[in-house]
Design brief:
By secondary structure, this protein is mostly helical. The chain is built from five helices and no strands. Helix 2 runs antiparallel to helix 3, helix 2 crosses helix 4 and helix 4 runs antiparallel to helix 5.
Length: 138
C-alpha cells in the first residue's frame, strides 16, 4: 500500500515510463540495451518463423523446397537473412557485454561506450564476413 511518503505527487517527479524526454537523455548504453531486447524479440519471431517455413517446405517435397529457396534468394528474402544475421551477432556480442557487466567490470561510462562501439562494429564486421562467405564472395 502506498503511503504519503513515497507517492509521486509528494516528490513531484515522474515514474519510469515518463523519464525519457525532458527528464532523461538517452545514452548509448540505454539505447543498445533496448536494442538488445528488440533483437531478441526479432530473432524469436522472425527467426522461428523462417525456420518453421523452411522445415515445412523441406518436408513437403522438392517442389515446395525449391519455392522456399527461390523466395530466400529474392531481395526480400536476402534482406531478411541479412537482418537476421546482424541481429544474431548483435545479440550475441551485446549478451557477452552484459555478462561482463554482471561481473562488475567495464561499468565506467568510457568503458561502456567503448564496448558499445565494439559491439556495433563487431556485429557489422561479422555479418559482412558471414554474408560474403556464404555468398561465395570470399
Amino acid at each position: 500500500m502506498a503511503t504519503e511518503k513515497n507517492t509521486p505527487e509528494r516528490h513531484q517527479r515522474p515514474i519510469s515510463p515518463f523519464m525519457i524526454g525532458p527528464y532523461y537523455k538517452p545514452q548509448l548504453s540505454s539505447i543498445l540495451s533496448i536494442a538488445h531486447r528488440a533483437s531478441g524479440v526479432f530473432l524469436s519471431v522472425f527467426g522461428s518463423a523462417l525456420l518453421i517455413y523452411w522445415l515445412v517446405a523441406l518436408s513437403q517435397g522438392a517442389q515446395a523446397y525449391q519455392a522456399a529457396m527461390l523466395w530466400l534468394v529474392s531481395i526480400p528474402g536476402m534482406l531478411l537473412l541479412a537482418t537476421l544475421c546482424f541481429a544474431i551477432y548483435y545479440h550475441f556480442f551485446n549478451g557477452i557485454r552484459h555478462l561482463i557487466w554482471d561481473t562488475g567490470r567495464m561499468l565506467k561510462i568510457e568503458q561502456a561506450n567503448r564496448s558499445a562501439i565494439f559491439v556495433l562494429s563487431g556485429s557489422f564486421i561479422a555479418s559482412v564476413l558471414t554474408i560474403a562467405t556464404v555468398g561465395g564472395w570470399l
